[in-house]
Design goal:
Helices cover 61% and strands 6% of the residues. It has 141 residues and is mainly alpha-helical.
Length: 141
């Protein structure tokens, strides 16, 4: 290894130490001033940091979703937008036949599930067979 590679390696090691908080002899999880305090002594801006972070994460996710939806409906891919391509695919006869078959099977499964649930909710009384009498039967005279 040349001198340049060694110097570059030391720079990366120092950057990693600083990022992990190991600079100036601090242990992992501790800053240069010692462990962070958790609880009522923390300043107000640190106490609400997780809430603000969660808010911005949700806000960012919403903006990304909005941009994706606008792209889906407004940006053309060839001559049509992605939404128009999807409508063209779904409106073909094979796709309509598949949807019809799927709906028929779903209705049949729903009917069977409803029947089974009704059986569980309202059990039929068990039919009893007449018990054989335990008394001795005399033969006719």
């Amino acid at each position: 290894m040349g001198a340049h590679e060694q110097r570059l390696g030391r720079c990366w090691a120092q950057a990693a130490d600083v990022a992990l908080g190991l600079a100036r002899g601090a242990a992992p999880g501790r800053g240069a001033k010692g462990p962070r305090e958790l609880g009522p002594g923390r300043s107000l801006h640190l106490r609400f940091a997780p809430v603000v972070g969660e808010f911005f994460k949700r806000l960012t996710n919403g903006v990304v979703f909005l941009l994706a939806a606008l792209t889906f409906f407004l940006v053309p891919i060839g001559r049509k937008t992605a939404a128009q391509h999807l409508v063209a695919i779904v409106s073909t006869p094979p796709a309509q036949e598949a949807a019809s078959a799927f709906a028929h099977i779903a209705r049949r499964i729903a009917t069977e599930a409803r029947t089974e649930l009704d059986k569980l909710r309202n059990p039929q009384p068990a039919q009893r067979e007449p018990k054989a009498s335990t008394a001795k039967v005399r033969p006719p005279p």
